[in-house]
């Protein structure tokens, strides 16, 4: 189990600098270390998405330090693989700017709809 020191590391799949609605089709990930109390982004990096291979992203994002994945849509099997790695998964987020998504998540006001991915 990772120590959080009052911080959480959030990964958001991006396409055109906004949350990608389909997790497996993103072009890059924002990996952000966020203060749980203030919501301030303490560190951030944009990382190109690796080539899409089933089952690879959970290990890859875990290795990037992610603790929470926020996505628009993600298949059930992918969600299970992330959870097996100890990562929390939030699905149904809208295609918005990642900073707004992070702020709303930390405040507990992130609005999510249905998971748009059914595989």
Automatic annotation (TrEMBL):
User: What Gene3D superfamilies does the record tag this protein with?
Assistant: Dinitrogenase iron-molybdenum cofactor biosynthesis domain
Organism name:
candidate division CSSED10-310 bacterium
Q: Which InterPro entries match?
A: Di-Nase_FeMo-co_biosynth (IPR003731), DiNase_FeMo-co_biosyn_sf (IPR036105), MTH1175_dom (IPR033913)
Q: Which Pfam families match?
A: Nitro_FeMo-Co
Which part of the chain is the Dinitrogenase iron-molybdenum cofactor biosynthesis domain? 16-106
Provide the protein name: NifB/NifX family molybdenum-iron cluster-binding protein
């Amino acid at each position: 189990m990772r120590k959080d020191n009052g911080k959480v590391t959030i990964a958001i799949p991006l396409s055109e600098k906004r949350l990608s609605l389909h997790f497996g089709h993103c072009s890059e990930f924002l990996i952000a270390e966020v203060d749980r109390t203030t919501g301030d982004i303490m560190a951030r990096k944009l990382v190109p998405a690796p080539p899409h291979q089933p089952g690879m992203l959970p290990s890859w994002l875990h290795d990037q330090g992610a603790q929470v994945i926020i996505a628009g849509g993600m298949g059930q099997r992918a969600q299970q693989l992330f959870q097996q790695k100890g990562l929390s998964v939030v699905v149904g987020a809208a295609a918005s700017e990642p900073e707004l998504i992070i702020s709303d998540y930390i405040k507990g006001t992130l609005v999510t709809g249905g998971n748009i991915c059914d595989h």
